[in-house]
Amino acid sequence: MAFFTENQVKDETLLEVAKKMLVAARTAPKGRGFDNLALAIVTGTELKKLCEEVIAIGEKESNPTFLRDGNNVLQSAGVVLLLGTRIKSLGLKICGLCGFGNCAGKEQYPDAPCIFNTSDLGTATGSAVALAADHRVDTRIMYTLGYAAIKMQLLGPEYKIAYGIPLSALSKNPFFDRK
Question: How far apart are CA 25 and CA 127, in angstroms?
Answer without folding.
Answer: 6
